[in-house]
Amino acid sequence: MAVFCGIVIVLGSWMASCSPKAIEKYSDAGREPKMSPDYSGTVIPPNIAPLNFRILEDGRAYFLTVRCDGGRPINIFSKTGRMRIPVRQWRALLEANQGRDVFFDVYVRDADRQWKRFLPVANRIAQEDIDRTLVFRFMKPAYNWWKDIGIYQRDLTNYDMSVVLHGRSFGGGCLNCHSFVGNDPDTMTIALRSATYGSHTLVAHTGAVEKIGAKWGYTGRLPYDMFRYPLIPEALLLTHEARQSDFTQWKLSDIFLELGHVNMAQKLASELVTTKGHLGVALEELGRIGIIKGHPDTARVYLNALKRDPIHHGRAEPLLRSLDSGFTPDQAAYIDGIRSCMRDEGAGVTGRESVDETLAALLEHNPRNKMAFEYLMACYLLTGRVDKIAENVERLHDLGYQKIPTLYEEAILIHFGSQGQQVDLTRFNISQETLARYEAFVRIANAMQTQNRQAVLNVLIRDFGASYFFYYTFGRVGLA
After folding, report:
1. Where along the chain do its domains lie?
2. pTM: predicted TM-score of the whole model, two decimal places
3. How far is 408 from 414, CA to CA, in rounded Å?
4. Phi, psi dihedral angles at 161 (to 5 degrees)
5. What radius of gyration do the chain's Cα atoms show?
6. CATH number of the 2-125 domain
7. Sheet harboring 133-138: ordered strands across?
8. Which pairs from 30-35 meet CB under 8 Å and 24+ separation?
9. What is the tens place of the pLDDT at every residue in 139-175?
C-alpha cells in the first residue's frame, strides 16, 4: 500500500510540473480566439455557473487565464482545448467584481512548442443576479419525435439538472407546451398526450398537481390570461399562414378534433397522409378519428400502417389493444367527450366558413361545448366585437361558470361605456375589483391628452398590460 501511494505522489508531481502556472514567453496572434460557445461581448450575471468553453484553434496545448481588476485570477491548462473553470474560484472572482469587466486570456502552443497569445475576450459582469432556475423541454431536433422527451429544470448557478416530468412516466407519451401563468413559478401548466392515458393538462399550483381533462389551449384560462402573451389576432385557429406547414396542418387537425369538428380534422389529416406518405402523427389521428366515429375496422387500417412508421410505431399498439379489449376510463371519457360535440357527417369540410361561423355552428350543435364557446368568445375579443360578448354572457351558467371571467367583464364594461350607458349590474354581476380597474384605466388613459403620452403609456402597460382594456384601446398586448 505504501508503494502504491508513493507512485501516485510521484505521478502527480510529474503532471504538475508539466502544467505551467503562467505563460511568460509568447507571440501575439493579433486577434481574438475562436471558441465555442463564443462568449465575447456578453453580459454575465454574477451568480451564473462557470462559462466553460472549447478553444477552436489548432494546437498541442492550451492555457487560459480568467482575470478581473480585483480578485485572484484563475489559471487553467488543457491538452484538448476544453476549458473547465472551477466553480468556487469563478464565483469568488465574479462576486468581487460586479459591474466590472472579466477577461479571458487564451494561449495556444503549437507543434514547435511556441506559445501564441490571442487578444483578450472581454465580458461585463452585471450588478444583478439571474433567476436561479430555468425550466425547459428537452427533445430531439425534430418536432414530431417524442419517444424520448421530458421537461427538465436546471440550476443556472451550477450544472445541476433534474427531471420535472418525462414521457416515459406515461407510456412514452408526448409532453407539449409548458408555461408558468403570468411568469409566476407558483402556477405551472404542462400539456401531455398519450395513446394509453389520453390527452390532458397538468396544473401545478403551490405544490399541488391537478389533472384537467383537456389539452393545452383549452385549460379554462383563455377568459383570464389570453392577453398575457404576444398575439396574432387572425391566428386563433392557426389560419394566419399564407401556406400552412405540415406542423401547422397537424396541429390544426388536432384542434378541430378537440372542438368536435371531426370531419375537418379527418380532411386535414388525410391530406397529410396523401401528400407526405406515412406521416405518423396523421396516421394516429386518423386511427383515433375512426374510433370516435365508430369505425373500428377503418381505425385498425391506419393503426396497422402506423406500426410500420419508423418513429411513431410504438403508439399504435396501445390503441390496437384497446380496440380489442376495451378502453381505459380516461380513453373512454375522451372518446365520449368528442362524440358529444361532433357535428353531423356532412358538416363543413369545404373550408368556406369563417372561424366564428365554424365555432358558432359547433356551439349550436352542442351548447355545452365549452371549448368551442371559449374559442368563439376569444374570436370576438380579438376582433373587438364586445357586443357579442355581452350577448353570449347568458350561456355562462349552463357551461358551469360560477362568475363572469375577468376578460368578459372588461369587454362588457367597454361595450356599455362606449355607448354612454350604465351597466345593469343585476344582469351582469361584475366584480367590484373590475369596476374599479375600469375607472382607473379610463382616468389614466384620458391623461394622455394633456400629459406625456409615453409616460402615461408606460403606466398603462405596467398596470393594465394584460387586460382587455389595454388590448381594445391600443390593438395590441401591453408587454413591457
Report:
1. 2-125, 133-230, 234-341, 375-474
2. 0.61
3. 10
4. -140, 140
5. 30
6. 2.60.40.10
7. 133-138, 150-155, 161-166
8. 30/119, 31/118, 31/119, 32/118, 32/119, 32/120, 32/121, 33/57, 33/106, 33/108, 33/118, 33/119, 33/121, 35/106, 35/121
9. 766 555 556 788 899 999 998 999 998 888 877 777 7
